[in-house]
Amino acid sequence: MRFPLALTVKIASHIVKHKMIKRAPKFAMVLQLEPLHTCNLTCTGCGRIREYSTSLKDMVPLEQCLGAAQDCDAPMVSICGGEPLIYPKIEELVAGLREQGRIIYICTNGVFMRKKMREYFATVYDAANPVHEKRMQKLLDAKLITEKEAEAIRHADAAAKAKVVIKPSKWMYWNVHVDGLEFTHDLIVEREGVFKECVAAIKMAKILGYQTATNTTVYKETDVQELEDMFKFLSSLDVDGHTISPGYDYDAAKKDMVKRLGRDPKEFFLTRDMTRKKFAKIEEWGQLFTIFGTPVYQEFLAGKRELTCTAWAIPTYNVKGWKAPCYLMTDGHYPTYAEMLGKVVWEKYGVVDGVARDPRCEHCMVHCGYDPSGALSDKPRDSWINMKYNFGARPKPFAATPELEKRAYNGVTIGKGHLAEAKAAINPAASARGAFSRKEEEHTHATPAAGGGCGSGDTSQRDDLLAKIKANGSVTSKTE
Ligand code: SF4
Ligand code: SF4
Q1: Fewer beta carbons within 10 angstroms: which end of the chain, N or C?
Q2: Nearest ligand, CA 355
Q3: Which ligand does the CA of 345 lie closest to?
């Protein structure tokens, strides 16, 4: 099965209960819970850290987070943000949601995952248990922990042993943000080394028995071939599933593009037509890889059908309350889910038969607006293909090969980080060691295997930095 049976049964019974028994016209399927908006990264295209820039220090208290989950009663909770692993009570939040019987996705940029997993391992490690030492050895051999960290785990004191931690569970997924192979991902997250850290975190998670998923946003500059390579690489790491969604030019992200990067958002985000072209092979990918979106949503992305937005099924709760109408757009916040359902005029939003009810929805095909539309479709044929997809055999993992690995690490690992040229300009001695230059080397998306391809991606950050260097002769940017 693509999705574990117990989880499928939980979601299916939730739909039956609300649609057939309660006859509820609108209900929550996935809660997007944002306990805070603080983040350790500043990804290009992230509207969150910009829209809520004045409340970055605010947090939703633990009890309120748990109350929000009970309020909407969604069977799945996606803990996002900001970076949820910065939330001081993240462990208690995960434990509390599990006590409520919910399926949990922790949507993380991956940077703090290994620390959280070391803390978990310290609580269970037992020197007398050969399985534990074998796992420790695997982690050491793969350089996923240091000797010092291994010793700290082996000799954890009573306080470390008693800590509430995030444990592996069939009800919980680490959902790691990966937007491309090394060069592209590090460029989008605006920091070198993050891709490598994400991969290390995924490898460590698999050794310790966690379920892992990835989520990818596709932008205008995203190269389709690179996406396929990324899925193959992630599959070779035995990642359990992937969410993929087109990027969308919502207001906050758009304003940031213009103000901070001086870029026209049209250069970066996808229109509907472009989305359909980028996702032309999504159904094929659904057969090759464990893509989590329903096949109905996949048909929609590929341009084979229309769907009506059901943003109410994936509501967002954050420091300001229930955010309406959707994860992306904000026309108001409400104190309860029921109030939001009752007061928002849902008919004002979405695209129906190709016509946008609200101009801001025109190019939106995002997962949080349309994936539940696929899961909740009334058409028997849609229910059948969804069921067939879910119960179908999980695609086999791709074999890990040096070739695939070489394609994945096409950035800073091989000296081609997106800031390499800028750094080399600051430190001329470094340039002698081979800084990446477009002039010297063909910028190609077609031959990443050759090690020369840098994937695709927006070079604005590096170009911006280079422009500043040229203008000022020095740089004090945060990106150094
Ligand atoms: S990691 Fe997530 S929340 Fe943080 S800046 Fe990136 S997209 Fe935004
Ligand atoms: S179509 Fe739906 S999810 Fe997309 S922006 Fe409009 S209301 Fe939000």
Answers
A1: C
A2: 2
A3: 2
